């Protein structure tokens, strides 16, 4: 009813950069994060890149008194790194793994092995549908080979939210989206779901200039990656929307700024994002809307579909190249087999090559065949996923254009 008490919800979101054996001072920082969360007493904590389950277990034990409900989302080879801590009961959880997530042969990046996902927790507050997530990293903005994959992830995330939030009253999303606020992926996600940006909506803001969460002043940040952005970049977000008879307003948004209080190190190479939301029931249900003018949204979908099409053509070329390599390796193996059989049958005077060289060439051809076949199968699946997303975007675009 109108005038019902307002629920004040305090949220903490952080990309923890807790990679075992690789992240600097990981255990010390995880303990620092736990101490801060226990002291501050947030209502909901969304963490990314907690790659070690032992780190999660240590946090769970430390925070059991103030966050009695928690969940760790397992995915991929090394895990999704996503976990959530809550003061309120978590009634249900769900993990959705994106269909495209980089390339398995790009070992130096590793996104494919962690199985980037979105973790969903359904709580009793409102009820509240909360999502913790991370999208594929950018690595190089000038030559972003992963842009089509990240757009597919943004589209799947937007579709996922639209289809799973129908029973919720409030949707809350927090995480490292690895996209700038003006990037097409962010505009697509917000336009298609109606999510609102806490930074843009906050009545009061305190923290890094422009809400940046990857800043040069952070001692763990790779300064060379931020040379084009002297103030830093904003890639960590808290997004929200009310669906039924509720309203949500962002009273305050904060980011951490450098070292933690009384310490010589920050929590992570990312700055944490903290939001205070006011949730209140209204007299009449809110109208369901995409949150953006249809014509503007159609332009965003068109731009995203174009980028996905570029990725599709690149994947088709890679599939053709790997398939051709597999055929050539197979032909070489068949020729070697024919030569070996001819020698055994006495059709040749002697082995045309030294036996060791012949065996090494056979093993090399076999290795190329296995590798090229695996790449061909992977890029075939990539083509199918990109093509499917392109078709979905075309259907959505047509629906927008035909709407009265």
Automatic annotation (TrEMBL):
Its EC number is 3.1.4.12. It is found in: Membrane. Gene3D superfamilies: Endonuclease/exonuclease/phosphatase. It is a multi-pass membrane protein. It comes from the Eukaryota. The chain crosses the membrane at residues 326-349, 355-378. Pathway: Sphingolipid metabolism; Lipid metabolism; sphingolipid metabolism. Residues 15-270 form the Endonuclease/exonuclease/phosphatase domain. GO terms for biological process: sphingolipid metabolic process. One of its GO terms (cellular component) is membrane. Belongs to the neutral sphingomyelinase family. This is sphingomyelin phosphodiesterase. It comes from Helopsaltes ochotensis (Middendorff's grasshopper-warbler). The gene is Smpd2.
């Amino acid at each position: 009813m109108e005038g019902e008490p307002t629920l004040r919800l305090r949220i903490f979101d952080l990309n923890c950069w807790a990679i075992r054996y690789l992240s600097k001072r990981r255990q010390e920082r995880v303990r620092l994060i736990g101490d801060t969360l226990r002291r501050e007493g947030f209502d909901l904590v969304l963490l990314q890149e907690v790659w070690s389950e032992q780190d999660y277990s240590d946090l769970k034990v430390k925070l059991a008194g103030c966050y009695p409900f928690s969940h760790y989302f397992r995915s991929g080879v090394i895990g999704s790194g996503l976990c959530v801590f809550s003061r309120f009961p978590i009634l249900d959880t769900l993990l959705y793994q994106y269909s495209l997530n980089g390339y398995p042969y790009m070992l130096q990046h590793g996104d494919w092995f962690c199985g980037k996902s979105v973790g969903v927790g359904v709580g009793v507050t409102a009820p509240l549908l909360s999502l913790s997530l991370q999208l594929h990293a950018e690595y190089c903005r000038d030559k972003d080979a992963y842009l089509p994959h990240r757009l597919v992830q943004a589209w799947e995330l937007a579709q996922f939210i639209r289809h799973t939030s129908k029973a919720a009253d409030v949707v809350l999303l927090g995480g490292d989206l690895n996209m700038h606020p003006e990037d097409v992926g962010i505009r697509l996600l917000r336009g298609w779901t109606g999510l609102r940006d806490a930074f843009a909506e906050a009545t009061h803001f305190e923290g890094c200039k422009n809400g940046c969460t990857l800043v040069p002043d952070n001692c763990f940040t790779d300064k060379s990656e931020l040379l084009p952005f002297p103030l830093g970049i904003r890639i960590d977000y808290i997004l929200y929307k009310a669906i039924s008879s509720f309203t949500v307003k962002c009273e305050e948004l904060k980011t951490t700024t450098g070292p933690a209080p009384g310490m010589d190190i920050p929590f992570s190479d990312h700055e944490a994002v903290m939001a205070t939301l006011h949730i209140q029931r209204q007299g009449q249900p809110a109208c369901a809307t995409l949150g953006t003018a249809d014509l503007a949204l159609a332009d965003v979908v068109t731009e995203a579909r174009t980028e996905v099409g570029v990725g599709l053509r690149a994947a088709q070329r890679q599939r053709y190249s790997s398939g051709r390599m597999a055929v050539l390796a197979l032909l070489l193996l068949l020729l070697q087999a024919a030569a070996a059989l001819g020698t055994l049958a006495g059709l040749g005077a002697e082995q045309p090559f030294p036996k060791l060289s012949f065996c090494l060439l056979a093993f090399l051809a076999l290795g190329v065949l296995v590798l090229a076949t695996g790449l061909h199968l992977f890029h075939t699946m990539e083509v199918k996923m990109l093509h499917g997303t392109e078709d979905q975007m075309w259907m959505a675009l047509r629906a927008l254009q035909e709407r009265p």
